[in-house]
Design goal:
Layout (H helix, E strand, L loop, with lengths): L6 E8 L5 H17 L3 E4 L6 H10 L1 E4 L12 E3 L7 H8 L4 E3 L3 H15 L3 E5 L5 H7 L7 E4 L2 H6 L8 E5 L5 H14 L13 H14 L4 E5 L5 H12 L5 E4 L7 H4 L4 E6 L5 H14 L1 E8 L20 H7 L4
Parallel strand pairs: 1-11, 1-12, 2-3, 2-4, 4-5, 6-7, 6-8, 9-10, 9-11
Helix pairs in contact: 8-9
């Protein structure tokens, strides 16, 4: 007598996984390796995912924490998608390094919005999480006296500015949409003349992934988010799933991380992936569920994303093979 597998609905979110900024950053490392050969140096993790980083290391990328770790070389160094303080390219020039900037264009937009506020005479409030590379990069665009980090509603309620009528705000691109709205609401109640950025700071990919997770989480017994522990947008998806109705939600990096004992009696499980998690890891998890359950796979989709960002001009004369593109797209 054979055991009958338990029925389970796996709700697969769309959109999920790589966004255009992550795709562009990975492309730039692969293109640089093809154009210049190995090694290509990368300051910090190009994106927050060990699978991607290790895959690039196997192709000849060398990841460093700071530029002074790089020996004298004509080989390029690439700045990560999260953005860097303005001191980093300045230091690269002093060290005579050929650098390529893979900062996501939407992060660069936040940098420009912050600088615009300052030119208009505003002190900038940056809503974000201390220590995140994107926050470090954004705060590093201006003098320390010109920007203040606001992490939560409590700080918004207790912050005392020099001039309450000369404030503007920007946000980290990967925040919880709902949490950020609460912080902005608390600030605008206290400072009615607070100036918003010219355009939304939280990026489209963050918003899209949170909205579909909210939809899929309703009535779910469990929710899995594929992503790295240091990925801000992935951790926010875990929080969003729980708030939206999932009985439990957890961050995993691969199928081996799944707490199967907690899921064994589940009837409906949600599955999504942060913006730096490759699709190959999602597929691995789907197969792991198929082995263990009588699984029905249901796609929960809100929008289709078709954004594309051009790589740095220096790399546009180099072409990627179909195998390269499979790696860039996170499917191989």
């Amino acid at each position: 007598m054979t055991d009958t597998k338990q029925k389970l609905e796996l709700r697969l979110c769309g959109p999920r996984g790589f966004c255009a900024g992550v795709d562009r950053a990975i492309q730039m490392v692969v293109l640089a390796l093809k154009k210049y050969g190995a090694p290509v140096y990368v300051r910090h993790e190009i994106v927050h995912n060990r699978y991607v980083v290790e895959g690039l290391e196997q192709q000849g990328a060398i990841f460093v924490k700071e530029l002074d770790e790089i020996p004298p070389t004509d080989q390029p160094v690439i700045f990560s998608a999260h953005g860097v303080p303005r001191s980093v390219p300045e230091n690269a020039e002093k060290l005579n390094l050929h650098y390529l900037d893979a900062t996501c264009p939407l992060v660069s937009k936040v940098h420009k919005q912050a600088i615009r506020h300052i030119r208009q005479g505003h002190h900038v409030l940056l809503i974000g999480h201390a220590g995140h590379p994107e926050v470090i990069g954004t705060m590093g665009q201006v003098d320390a006296s010109e920007m203040t980090l606001i992490e939560d509603v409590l700080q918004a309620q207790t912050y005392e500015p020099r001039d309450a009528d000369a404030l503007g705000f920007v946000t980290q691109t990967t925040l919880s949409v709902d949490d950020t709205a609460e912080v902005i609401n608390a600030l605008t109640k206290r400072f009615p003349n607070l100036q918003a950025p010219a355009a939304e700071s939280i990026c489209y990919a963050t918003t899209n992934r949170q909205e579909v997770v909210k939809l899929a989480a309703k009535g779910a017994d469990y929710f899995l988010i594929v992503g790295a522990p240091n990925s801000s947008n992935s951790k926010r998806l875990v929080e969003v799933a729980t708030r939206a109705g999932a009985k439990s939600s957890v961050l995993v990096q691969k199928a081996a991380d799944i707490p199967w004992n907690e899921i064994k009696n589940a009837k409906a499980v949600g599955l999504s992936a942060g913006a730096s998690a490759p699709e190959i890891l999602v597929n691995e998890i789907i197969e792991a569920f198929r082995e263990r359950f009588d699984m029905s796979l249901n796609l929960v989709e809100t929008v289709k994303e078709d954004e594309e960002f051009l790589v740095a001009r220096d790399l546009r004369d180099t072409e990627l093979t179909s195998q390269d593109m499979a790696f860039v797209n996170g499917v191989e």
